[in-house]
């Protein structure tokens, strides 16, 4: 009985993950499916795009060792949940001239989850 109670408590704890952790888990899947071909998540990892390690809080176009387009460097906005949300919804409309060849993630729920995941990359 005691063992049973411990297992049940463990299961309940697993089920009541904070909403943010659930979002981050869902966002990780979105990232793997839509972003990981071009973006790494480790510091300095270079693919076609810059590493997104520590992206939340840094200035646009400032990742070390990556050659950004003039459009992104000149823009220089600070990446926070709001600016990232706008950029990821429609990159080329938000920063005309960006070299990021990605049409945009139109699903707001998926963007929210993705942002929760990006915030864990630090
Ligand atoms: C086809 C490759 C490709 C895909 C797919 C892609 N990106 Fe990018 N991304 C790039 C490139 C290249 C840049 C640099 C753009 C520039 O210099 O104008 C970039 C830039 C960025 C930046 C700005 C980084 C900085 O340090 O300023 C963010 C944030 C970003 N991408 C997030 C994402 C996310 C999240 C996804 C998935 C939804 C994604 N990207 C999908 C290629 C891609």
TrEMBL record:
Statement: the UniProt record of this protein carries the keyword Signal: yes
Start and end residues of each Cytochrome c domain: 22-122
Coiled-coil blocks: none
PROSITE patterns recorded: CYTC
Pfam families according to UniProt: Cytochrom_C
InterPro entries the UniProt entry points to: Cyt_c-like_dom (IPR009056), Cyt_c-like_dom_sf (IPR036909), Cyt_c_1A/1B (IPR002327)
Gene3D superfamilies: Cytochrome c-like domain
Keywords per UniProt: Electron transport, Heme, Iron, Metal-binding, Signal, Transport
Protein name: C-type cytochrome
């Amino acid at each position: 009985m005691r063992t049973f109670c411990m297992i049940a408590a463990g299961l309940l704890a697993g089920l009541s993950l904070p909403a943010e952790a659930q979002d981050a888990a869902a966002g990780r899947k979105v990232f793997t499916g839509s972003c990981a071909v071009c973006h790494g998540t480790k510091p300095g990892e270079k693919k076609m795009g810059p590493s997104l390690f520590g992206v939340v809080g840094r200035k646009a176009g400032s990742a070390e060792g990556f050659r950004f387009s003039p459009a992104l460097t000149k823009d220089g906005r600070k990446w926070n949940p709001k600016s990232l949300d706008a950029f990821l919804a429609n990159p080329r409309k938000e920063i005309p001239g960006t070299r990021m060849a990605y049409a945009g993630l139109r699903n707001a729920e998926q963007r929210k989850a993705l942002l929760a995941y990006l915030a864990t990359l630090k």
